[in-house]
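Archive maintenance. Older records in this collection stored only the sequence; we are now back-filling the structure field for every entry so that each record is complete. The fields below show one back-filled record exactly as it appears after the update. Entries are processed alphabetically, and DUF218 domain-containing protein is next in the queue.

ARCHIVE ENTRY
Title: DUF218 domain-containing protein
Organism field: Blastococcus saxobsidens
Length field: 207
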Amino acid sequence: MVARGLMTRTVGAGFLAAVLLVVSTALAIWYTARQDARPPSDAIVVLGSAQYNGVPSSIFEARLEHARALYEQGVAPVIVTVGGKAAGDQFTEAEAGRDYLAATGVPAEALLPVEQGVDTLESMRVVAAAFAERGWESAVLVTDPWHAMRAERMAEDAGMDADSSPTRQGPAVQTRATQFRYILRETAAYLLYRVTGESVAGAPGIG
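Back-filled structure field:
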């Protein structure tokens, strides 16, 4: 009976610890989503999202517009667009982002497409390599609010000094139900990364 009671308490403590970990992570994601850090940096990095024949999706467009605003405010002299392409696509996410920004008047010399990355982790690693080649260190990441904490963590693990300035527009922030769903998915994705060091495929901005 003593052993059974000890096992019950151990299982209960483990369950409580797991619940607390999930809740604290979700709260940290919520808190980070409400921050907006935009210190002078080497580059603004726009995390890729879906594009359709070279046209950014509404999620991607919101990120690109926010990055353009940061550039115009003098946060950094370069905007890095990052992201590869799916099978059958003619354009990479990085190309679509670069072309969109160029069409809005951002000079070509201020745009650097990094045409690799199928998820956040790979994207941060290839961007970190591009930074190292140019002697850059600091970045302001532009992505959806709920994605910011994981993107920052992955960027820092890849060797960058990263802050985030999340978008405040677009489908990811339209309704409370949408926000709650994204927070749940990001909580799972962040914890998976911390445990395994790997990313997870999912909706735009989740992988």
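Update note: The chain has one domain: 32-196. Helices lie at 2-33, 58-72, 93-103, 120-134, 148-157, 176-196.
Entry marked complete.
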